[in-house]
């Protein structure tokens, strides 16, 4: 019995040690390890009850912490991989899927939202006014989450571009080329400052809306507005579904492509795309459910 306990403890320690040896790649790109580990994390997240729309930017919710422990993977690695994998996999799926995929998905998401809003309207007729206020706050949170996600992607792209430029700078001796590189780095720095200002602004808006949501939920719980709160959750999920599908449809129509700075991350994502699609779909992504095999 003691030997068995010792063996279990040794294996657990080895697993944690393996996870803890991760270091951020110098090129800031995804490699096979990051992608495969992220898939393991996604599977663990599904196992512990995680949901697609409830993921946080810094993998900091209680459910996400459980998934990290379950997968025995470092939080920093998941934070690093998460946005990169999602952006690259999303683009690969949008490129490959026919346009009518998003028409069908948009119709399904619209119907889901319409049904949720219809039931919510009926409840709000005789319900507390806080239901309507909370609904508006939820709309703002959906908007803010999209804006913040786009800012994060832009920051990652600039980070990769900056790294490539600094590498080129260290290898270049030509004065004219060095001057051009330094100008590009200065431009990136200026964009970073603007991006940081935009991020802080959106974070303030999100924080204010999130605090307001918490206050409204408490008030509604005190008056027993259980059905209203449940319907609001369904409506918020439906809005997030619709927003995700509409964005994919818009990018497909516009012919939007992946930024070249992320090209180095495409191959490892493509190699595990089937597993990624399955994991995202199982967590509840309407975009990946639309193409899941």
Describe the structure.
Helices cover about 80% and strands about 0% of the residues. With about 290 residues, it is mainly alpha-helical. Helix 2 (about 30-45) packs across helix 3 (about 60-70), helix 2 (about 30-45) crosses helix 4 (about 75-95) and helix 5 (about 100-125) runs antiparallel to helix 8. The protein is globular. The relative contact order is 0.16.
Could you say which structural class the secondary elements and strand pairing correspond to? mainly alpha
Tally the helices: what do you get? 11
End-to-end distance:
45 Å
List low-confidence stretches.
1-18
Helix content: over 70%
* Largest sheet properties: none
Described by the principal axes of the CA atoms, the overall outline is: globular
Strand content: under 5%
Average pLDDT figure: 92
Instruction: Give me the Rg, rounded.
Output: 22 Å
* Count of distinct strands: 0
Question: How would you sum up this structure in a few lines?
Answer:
With 293 residues, this protein is mostly helical. The chain has helices spanning 2-20, 32-47, 62-71, 75-96, 100-126, 130-171, 175-222, 226-254, 266-271, 273-283, 286-289. It is 80% helix and 0% strand.
Key features?
11 helices, 293 residues
Q: Layout of SSEs?
A:
Blueprint: H1 2-20, H2 32-47, H3 62-71, H4 75-96, H5 100-126, H6 130-171, H7 175-222, H8 226-254, H9 266-271, H10 273-283, H11 286-289
Helix pairs in contact: 2-3, 2-4, 2-10, 5-8, 6-7, 6-8
């Amino acid at each position: 019995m003691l030997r068995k306990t010792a063996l279990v403890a040794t294996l657990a320690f080895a697993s944690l040690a393996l996870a803890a040896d991760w270091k951020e790649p110098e090129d800031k790109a995804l490699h096979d390890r990051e992608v495969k580990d992220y898939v393991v994390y996604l599977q663990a997240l599904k196992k512990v009850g995680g949901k697609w729309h409830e993921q946080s930017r810094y993998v900091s919710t209680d459910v996400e912490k459980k998934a990290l422990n379950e997968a025995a993977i470092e939080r920093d690695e998941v934070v690093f991989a998460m946005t990169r994998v999602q952006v690259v996999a999303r683009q690969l799926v949008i490129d490959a899927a026919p346009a009518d995929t998003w028409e069908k998905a948009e119709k399904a998401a619209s119907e889901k939202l319409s049904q949720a809003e219809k039931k919510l309207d009926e409840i709000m007729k005789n319900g507390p006014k806080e239901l309507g206020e909370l609904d508006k706050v939820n709309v703002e949170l959906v908007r803010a989450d999209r804006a913040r996600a786009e800012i994060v992607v832009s920051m990652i792209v600039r980070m990769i571009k900056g790294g490539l430029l600094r590498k080129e700078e260290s290898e270049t001796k030509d004065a004219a080329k060095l001057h051009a590189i330094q100008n590009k780095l200065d431009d990136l720095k200026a964009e970073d400052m603007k991006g940081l200002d935009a991020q802080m602004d959106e974070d303030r808006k999100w924080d204010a809306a999130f605090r307001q949501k918490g206050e409204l939920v408490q008030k509604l719980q005190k008056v027993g507005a259980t059905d209203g709160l449940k319907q609001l959750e369904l409506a918020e999920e439906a809005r997030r579904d619709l927003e995700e599908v509409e964005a994919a449809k818009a990018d497909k129509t516009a012919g939007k492509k992946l930024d070249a700075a992320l090209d180095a991350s495409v191959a490892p994502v493509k190699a595990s795309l089937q597993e990624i699609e399955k994991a995202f779909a199982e967590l509840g992504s309407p975009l990946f459910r639309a193409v899941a095999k």
